[in-house]
Structure formats: structure tokens, C-alpha cells
Amino acid sequence: MNCSKSWLQAIWKRLSKMIGLDVGDRRIGVAAADGLGLTAQGLPTIERRRLSDDLDSLIRIITERNSSEIVVGLPKNMDGSVGSQGEKVRRFTEALTHRMVEHELDPPSIVYWDERLTTVAAQRMLIDADISRKKRKGAVDKIAAVLILQGYLDHLSRRGSAVTGSPAIDSLE
User: Fold this and answer.
1) CATH code, 36
2) Is 4 within the bounds of a domain?
3) What is the percent of the chain with per-residue pLDDT over 90, rounded to a whole number?
4) Considering the domain boundaries, does residue 152 fall inside one?
5) Would you say residue 156 lies in a domain?
């Protein structure tokens, strides 16, 4: 019984500390898993300024939440290939990892999650909720980050990988 309790605590610790990101040119949507690792909750959106400021803002969130895993939306073309925006996202996450190492912090593992149509789905949700265009602008990125992280959490739940402890996959790569 004691072994299973520590096993469950390890699973909970992993899931409850996950962060989801929707990295865009103007804003970074941020989401975090709830305390049970079941649902994604939106955090304040980061308005992009300079790369160093953006990285420092994310590092603060990562360290405050003691996150060891980040799920990053990877934009893909409809044929599944990674285009220029996807390459920008990869360069950004590489810069984040490098910056954390420079600050002598352990960088979290990065999981790329196919984010095709998440922004479209987020916009549709806000339109359906009759949110004004002005308010939608700031909320789309947060909701997209929630959808990215929730999709990954649901994937882990269906696969049972969170329970079995198998490593996270670099999805759809």
C-alpha cells in the first residue's frame, strides 16, 4: 500500500505542475493544470515585448509553479508538416531552455503538441459566447493555451501513460 501511495503522489506531482503555452508573435497564452492534473486553467497572457522579457516572464511562472513539463502548441500545416511559424516556436523553446541553463535552473521537459485549429476553436468559443471583438483579442491566446494543455492531459488520460509512468510523447512528430 505504501508503494502505491508514493506512486500516486509522483503521478499527481507530474500532472499538477504542467504548463501549456500558445506562443504567438504578439502574445503568449499560458495555462496550468489544476491541482489534480485533470483540467487546464488559463493564466494571464504575456504580451510580447522583447525576447529576453518574454523568457524572463515565463521563467518566473515556471519557477513559481515548480513546473517540470511544458506542453507547447506546435503550429503545423494541414498536411502535418512544420512550417515557418512552427520553426519560430521551436526556436523560442530552445531559447527558453538555454536561458534557464544560463540562470542555473533545471529546464522543464518540452512536449510539442499539434495545435492545428486551436486558435480557430478558441475564436469560435468566444464568438459563440457573444464576447466582443475587443475582448476576444486578449482572450484567444489564453483559451488556445488551455485547449493545448487540456488536449494533452486528455491524451495522457486516454493512453494511461500518466498512470504507467511511460515518458511523454512528442506528439504527432
Assistant:
1) 3.30.420.140
2) no
3) 51
4) yes
5) yes
- pLDDT digits over 125-158, tens only? 767 777 777 766 778 889 899 999 999 998 888 7
Q: Could you identify the residue written with the cell 506542453? A: 71
pTM: 0.81
Q: How far apart are CA 60 and CA 129, in angstroms?
A: 32
Its sign, for the CA torsion 172, 122, 108, 16, is negative
Distances (CA, A) of 129 to 2, 120, 135, 151: 47, 14, 11, 21
Residue 43 main-chain phi, psi, to 5 deg:
-115, 170
Q: Please report how many Cα atoms fall inside a 13 Å half-sphere around the Cα of residue 118, on the Cβ side.
A: 29
Cell of 116: 492545428
Residue 72's domain comprises 14-164
- What kind and span of H or E run contains 128? helix 118-128
Q: Provide the number of structural domains found in the chain.
A: 1
**Cα–Cα dist 25/21, whole Å:** 13
What's the Cα-to-Cα distance from 64 to each of 21, 58, 93, rounded to whole Å? Answer: 16, 10, 18
Give domain status of residue 95, yes or no. yes
Q: Name the E strands within the chain.
A: 19-23, 27-33, 40-47, 69-74, 109-114
The residue behind cell 483559451 is 143
Residues in the chain: 173
